[in-house]
């Protein structure tokens, strides 16, 4: 979440006229994340989040994202469904950009997840995968393994500026993924951004998930691998093995992993670290004028890449994740 596009009082009034959600009482930008502009909106009908979709979120994908949210909510999964406009549309436009209003969810994200939080996050991810079963629409993962070489092209100098020799290491990793990436794993809808700031808890239990704007169709175990990177590393770049095993166990309690999925976790986690390293590398640099954002340091994921690279080479990955039989 972030604020790239400010909205005036008059623009907000015109936008809200498209909806039957009462009059605005409070409106405030949310300065987290890097993808879209988000605002906390309070009206006399309740609390909502207004999202203005920026360049990274393509308008052609919005029907998938918003319809998925409605499907999940209708099938009992705790997420923030979009509020339809008076004419039934799930999004409208403000300042020429698409924008939607979703329900505000109760709960709190955690900045420093405990082992118990990791177990609950794994459970919440598995519940999402199960709730999405039967959803008929699909979206290609445009940030998936087949895209990584193209994503890195042109950013080699930026990588070497962060750490001499890093560009060659990243290129070698990408070549390894092209040879070794698992095929034929169980697939379906994945969240693809199930980070701690996108997961809410109440009384220590999983309560809800938000920010589905990277959701796509891919291997379900790849979504779990993204979570391992997001939830289970310490500030010094080391993997918290206890947390990783708890996350995998929490997931497996709701949706048991197949033998092939367990075997694939080490390379999936390595590749998931590459995906977030690359998007952070692309975003790294001066912020757009007037943007209220906090760009993420790509080197945080460079350290995770190193951990997974070593674990994969030594064959220790399955032991680290508690996924060995």
| Helical segment count | 11
Please give the CATH architecture of the largest domain.
Alpha-Beta Complex
CATH class of the largest domain: Alpha Beta
- Cα distance, first to last residue? 39 Å
* CA-atom Rg in angstroms: 20 Å
Trace the largest sheet across and list its strands: 1-2-3-5-4
On the 0 to 100 scale, the average pLDDT is 93
SS strand fraction: 5-15%
CATH topology grouping of the largest domain: Aminoglycoside 3'-phosphotransferase, Chain: A, domain 2
* Overall helicity: 40-55%
Number of domains: 2
Q: The biggest beta sheet, please?
A: 5 strands, antiparallel
SS elements, strand count: 9
Low-pLDDT parts are none
Overall outline: globular
Name the quaternary structure: single chain
Structural class: alpha+beta
Order of helices and strands: HEEEHEEHHHHEEEEHHHHH
| CATH homologous superfamily caption of the largest domain | Aminoglycoside phosphotransferase (APH), C-terminal lobe
